[in-house]
Amino acid sequence: DGGITQSPKYLFRKEGQNVTLSCEQNLNHDAMYWYRQDPGQGLRLIYYSQIVNDFQKGDIAEGYSVSREKKESFPLTVTSAQKNPTAFYLCASSRGPNQETQYFGPGTRLLVL
Amino acid sequence: SQKIEQNSEALNIQEGKTATLTCNYTNYSPAYLQWYRQDPGRGPVFLLLIRENEKEKRKERLKVTFDTTLKQSLFHITASQPADSATYLCALLNNAGNMLTFGGGTRLMVKP
């Protein structure tokens, strides 16, 4: 059963704390992406990776960090520098770096305590 | 500046009618445009991709048009059903060809 999994479904962050959101895919896709979605808004690109051990900043990378040590995994860390982290975070993948047809995970909702 | 505009107001239609959603863009020269469906609390699901040299594309009850002169795409759902109720997002490849940029989406409500 191929697809993208994200965990946890809900995540609570205390002030000053770093938290890491997991994203795994078994589609053998080269490219992976992280988006942030605020209520009633579209998706904004945080980071993307077109190949293992390489990643690029998107439109709103400040306060976030990523790694791509394995093809199937692309974790996102929300650091304490991100002052407004409450949002719905979506991970996606595509077959190649040409950005066509992205497949999305179920999302992680991050809430600040 | 680059902008993608979708009607932020919900579109309410009666079951059986055709729903038409609009995606307008400025300062883009996209090689293609995509439409996604998103249900509440879930990730978007890809529906259709239309390239700049295509005027129209169909998939079952869905039809997408792409007018690069007007800088507009129209997304039609014919014989709409309550199960079609969702938010529909359009997405464009940016001019550098390295990022897919999403519109804010339009919520469609199909009433029985």
Q: Any low-confidence stretches of chain B, pLDDT <50, length ≥5?
A: none
Rg of chain B, Cα atoms, Å: 13 Å
Cα distance, first to last residue of chain A? 35 Å
Assign the structural class of chain B, choosing from mainly alpha, mainly beta, alpha/beta, alpha+beta, or little secondary structure. mainly beta
Chain pair sharing the greatest interface: A-B, 27 and 23 residues
Strand content of chain B: over 45%
Helix percent of chain B reads under 10%
The counted number of beta strands of chain B is 11
Shape of chain A: globular
Query: How many helices of chain B does DSSP assign?
Result: 0
What is the rounded Rg of chain A? 13 Å
Secondary structure blueprint with pairings:
The complex is a heterodimer of chains A (113) and B (112).
Chain A: E1 4-7, E2 10-13, E3 19-25, E4 31-37, E5 43-51, E6 54-57, E7 64-66, E8 76-78, E9 87-94, E10 103-104, E11 108-112
Parallel strand pairs in A: 2-11
Antiparallel strand pairs in A: 1-3, 3-8, 4-5, 4-9, 5-6, 7-8, 9-10, 9-11
Chain B: E1 3-6, E2 11-14, E3 19-26, E4 32-38, E5 45-51, E6 56-59, E7 62-67, E8 72-77, E9 86-93, E10 100-102, E11 106-111
Parallel strand pairs in B: 2-11
Antiparallel strand pairs in B: 1-3, 3-8, 4-5, 4-9, 6-7, 7-8, 9-10, 9-11
